[in-house]
Every structure is written in structure tokens, then in C-alpha cells.
Amino acid sequence: MHLNQPSVTATVIIPAYTLDRWDLLSEAVASVQSQARPPLELIVSIDRNQELLDRCQRQWGDQTVPGGVPVHVVANRFDQDDRGAGAHVRAHGSKRRFGAGWARNTAAELAKGDILVFLDDDAWADPDWLEHLLAPYDDDPRAVAVGGAPMPAYETGRPVWFPWNFDWVFGCAYEGMPTELAPLGHLIGANMSVQRGAFEEIGGFHSIDFDDLDLCMRVAAARSDQYLLFEPRAVVHHFVPAQRVEWRYFWRRCFYVNREKVEAFAGMGDAANIKAERAFVRRAMTTQVAREFRVLRRGDLNGIRRLVAMAVGVSMAGCGHLTGRVQNFLHPVGSGE
Length: 337
What we know:
Spore Coat Polysaccharide Biosynthesis Protein SpsA, Chain A; alpha/beta; single chain
């Protein structure tokens, strides 16, 4: 089946929590409304912010534009568990409510589409985004989840020292991911989708952080005969604020993300695996190092900076993982300590 012969329907879900992102959220909504392959509906789910909820309801609440995409605005109905928020704040270097999983779960309960599609409130989609994201479901019933490529949209600019394989630091597709439709174990939450049945089967998002990782691991374990796929042509543009391309943010993010991942993996039980993390380190130490040496031979001395940043990033990730292992040994998940 081809892109012009759609069969599955989709509900797009955008979680939001702050008025600081109003302009970005508005652009995200507009990009969904202008899709070449429109979704069945769009649900904007607001997490614990009455002022934002009121403004969204005035702007979009239950729109019924003839021929347009219906927009529903809802309030997150779940009480979010904020344990672990301190580590997240340190990793991001700024205070913010985090973990869109609960808000997404609220929207998913109301969704009518066959496929649940998740877009962040600071990302906006290309017009053919849904065409590419939904096509694998049309073509192969074994496609259980499909993710697209969030591409960075910088507030300032990309530092010359920032390694291309570390764009995951700000939630974007990175060098080393597939360059064509292919299986991938961990899809990126800013741009991902899943069969509604599979989502309901695993009980939706379980965690306040690493919610996309948790979902992918659980779906892969529950539907081992199906595929999680990455479609790089399904592009959204993910806003990267200036603070996220600073050196301090880079190394802290590498450490804290990998420290907290240990607890996240422990909470997944048998569904967890670190194959992707091991593959990332192998690529960084081989393919990407070789790439930078080729750049150096062509006279680009910034390759040295990226090599140093890569070495620091991998080292901090390793230190974070070991620290997390020690913490989990002393205070196991579920121990109540």
C-alpha cells in the first residue's frame, strides 16, 4: 500500500505544561493542522497549569472547522509522582515540570485513532510528516511503533565543538541512527507513534522521565513478533534553547541521564536491555572517531574539539552508569528506602 492509499487513522497528542512555550505550541498545532495526510484528531493535553489550559481552550477548544482537524483540549487527570525531579533538574540545568507521560496517558484514553502519535510542544512538523510516519503501518501489520527524526532548530547556533552523534542530548536524531526506514529499539519521544492496542496492552506510559524509552522497551517485549521502526523522512523540527548547547549542560546531561537510566531500566524488569547504549559507545569509539580524523586530515581543526567532547561525553556517561549501579545496589527500586 502506498502513501496515497491510507488505511490507518491517527490521533496526534501534544502534551504541554508552560506558557513560556506558547509560540512554539501554537506552531506545533498549526503544523498538525496543515498535514498532507491529516490526522483524525489532535488532542492538546495540559499538565497542571490552569492559565495555560484556559488559554488553549479559548484558542482551540473543541474546534469544529469544516474539513479541518478537530482539536480537543484536555487537562491531565493524573497526579504526577515527582520523586526524582531533583536529578532531572540538575541534568537540565533549569527548573521545569517534567515527564509528559501522564499527560499523554490522559489524551490516549480519549483518542479515537488506530495510531497514537506523539509530538512535543516545542516541535513543529513538516507537511509530509504524517504521510511518512503512518505509511509503515499501512504497508506492514507487524509495524507496532514508528518514530521519526526530530531535527534541531537552534535558538542561537550549533557550537563547532558539539559532536554530531550527541544530538540526543537535546532530544534530536543523531549521527549513527538509520538513514532509511529500519528497525530501531529506542524511538525519540518528540516524534513517535504506536498502535493504540499495543499502548493499552502495556498500560501506557509508566514513568515520569525516560517515558519514551520505557514505552519502547515494554512494547518490544510485549510484541516481540512485531517491529519498532525509525523513518528518517518523518521530520519534525525540535527547538533547542541556547542553554542546551552550553558545555556545562552537555557534560552534566551525559552524566545524569545515564545515572538515572539505571533506575529506569530496573523498573522495566525483563523488558529492559542496554543494547542501544553499548552500540552507541562502539560507534563513538570507532566510526565517529574515524570520521573526525578524516575531517582533521582535511584541515578542520574543530575535529579535535569534537573528539575531546566525545571522549568527555562517553566518560561522563560511563561514570553516570556506574554511579547509578551503585545507588541501585544500595537502594534497589521498589525497596521503599
